[in-house]
């Protein structure tokens, strides 16, 4: 199949630093290509991915400084991409709500991955497009929505990009946007109460500058609490790989949380507060701990070396969150939508096939 993956136009693919949706799309494009599909990625001109890339805007633009101008740019990019893809692709896969309205004007099947937490206004908007096939990125997210064509496909990453480290250094890590809902201030509290140093990495977005200045910066001393700036892939491998644990003290219903599986890929367990998808991503006692308070996180941090084995953490992410597993599930969805009769005839015993047999079958269907 020829598959169009339409990204927002603001961050390059793969992202150099911040960019959860863009990291997802980079992995999906690579995984689908390995399965034998032809992938066209609609992004910006700074993207560098081994797939066909098309763009309307040559440059990335992050962070966003003016919401109206950004919305107009995203509408223009998405409408152009959907129209262009409709002429040459078998499936159109969008990743922002702007793309849904164009489903009324095309005959090509359209898929939309929901990347945000539940919002009543957006859910009402989705109800006007029941013919679109929706993908939730966690069961928690799926259970909050009521679209008829909705299934869960959890994220996966290219594990070859993450280095496993079996020996850890004596520090905790936090990686994410420095925003109140991500809980960096609580990570600082865990570090201070546990007596274990903390290294913080992440983007300071203009909208949350006051939060950083009042809740984070006063605690940074360059020794016990360090801020190391934004992290590219090499910095992620260094920060996460050497850490005793990643702290994930979220204060909102996280739809998925890619940083958790990035940490696990380095063999580093996750200490997370329960919220959103956390219980689906963290295998309690195996790849980390799901905690219910800062006090519990403190206790788990102090004993993490005793109970969690880095090799088991890496094995967990290999089993559940690989790029190959994710791409196979999306390819199955694409095939069902494009040729349901063919799929039923050829894959009537799909669930009885091994993952390798499923992969080979998708390669044949892609031709």
Could you explain how this protein is built, in words?
The protein is α/β, with parallel strands linked by helices and 367 residues long. The protein folds into two domains: 200 residues, Rossmann fold (3-Layer(aba) Sandwich); 160 residues, Rossmann fold. The strands form two sheets. A seven-stranded parallel beta sheet has the order 3-2-1-4-5-6-7, sandwiched between helices. Strands 10-9-8-11-12-13 form a six-stranded parallel beta sheet, with helices on both faces. Strand 8, helix 5 and strand 9 form a beta-alpha-beta unit. Helix 12 packs across helix 13. The N and C termini lie close together (7 Å). About 2% of the residues have low confidence.
Overview in brief:
The protein is α/β, with parallel strands linked by helices and 367 residues long.
**What would you say the CATH architecture of the largest domain is?**
3-Layer(aba) Sandwich
Rg, alpha carbons: 21 Å
Give, in spatial order, the strands making up the sheet with the most strands. 3-2-1-4-5-6-7
Q: What top-tier CATH class of the largest domain fits best?
A: Alpha Beta
How many beta strands in the DSSP annotation?
13
Inertia-based shape: globular
Order of SSEs: EHEEHEEHEHEEHEHEHEHEHEHHHHH
Span of the ends, CA to CA? 7 Å
Structural class: alpha/beta
CATH homology group of the largest domain:
Glycogen Phosphorylase B
Q: CATH topology of the largest domain, anyone?
A: Rossmann fold
Domains (count): 2
Kindly report the average pLDDT value: 93
Helical content band: 40-55%
Q: Provide the β-strand percentage band.
A: 5-15%
Low-confidence stretches: 341-347
How many helices? The count is 14
Q: Sheet bearing the most strands, described?
A: 7 strands, parallel
């Amino acid at each position: 199949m020829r598959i169009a993956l339409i990204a927002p136009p603001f961050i390059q693919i793969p992202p150099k630093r911040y960019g959860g949706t863009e990291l997802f799309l980079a992995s999906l494009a690579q995984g689908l290509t390995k399965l034998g599909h032809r992938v066209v990625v609609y992004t910006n001109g700074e993207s560098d991915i081994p797939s066909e890339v098309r763009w309307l805007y040559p440059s990335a633009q992050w962070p966003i400084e003016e919401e109206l101008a950004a919305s107009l740019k995203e509408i223009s990019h998405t409408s152009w991409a959907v129209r262009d893809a409709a002429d040459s692709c078998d499936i159109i896969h969008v990743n922002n709500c702007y793309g849904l309205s164009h489903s009324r004007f095309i005959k090509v099947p359209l898929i939309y991955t929901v990347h945000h937490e539940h919002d009543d206004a957006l859910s009402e908007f989705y109800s006007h497009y029941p013919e679109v096939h929706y993908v939730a990125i966690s069961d928690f997210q799926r259970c909050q929505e009521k679209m008829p064509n909705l299934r869960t496909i959890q994220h996966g990453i290219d594990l070859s990009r993450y280095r496993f480290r079996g020996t850890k250094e004596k520090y905790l890590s936090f990686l994410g946007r420095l925003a109140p809902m991500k809980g960096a201030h609580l990570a600082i509290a865990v570090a201070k109460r546990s007596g274990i140093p903390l290294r913080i990495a992440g983007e300071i977005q203009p909208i949350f500058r006051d939060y950083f200045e009042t809740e984070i910066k006063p605690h940074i001393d360059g020794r016990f609490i360090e801020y190391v700036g934004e992290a590219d892939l090499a910095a992620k491998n260094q920060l996460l790989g050497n850490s005793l644990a990643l702290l994930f003290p979220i204060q909102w219903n996280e739809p998925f949380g890619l940083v958790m599986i990035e940490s696990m890929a380095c063999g580093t367990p996750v200490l997370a507060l329960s919220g959103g998808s956390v219980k689906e991503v963290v295998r309690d006692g195996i790849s980390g701990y799901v905690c219910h308070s800062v006090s519990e996180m403190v206790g788990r941090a102090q004993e993490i070396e005793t109970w969690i084995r880095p090799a088991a953490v890496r094995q967990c992410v290999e089993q559940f969150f690989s790029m190959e597993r994710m791409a196979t599930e999306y390819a199955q969805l694409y095939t069902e939508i494009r040729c349901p009769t063919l799929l039923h005839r050829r894959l009537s015993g799909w669930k009885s096939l091994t993952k390798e047999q499923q992969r080979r079958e998708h390669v044949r269907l892609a031709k």
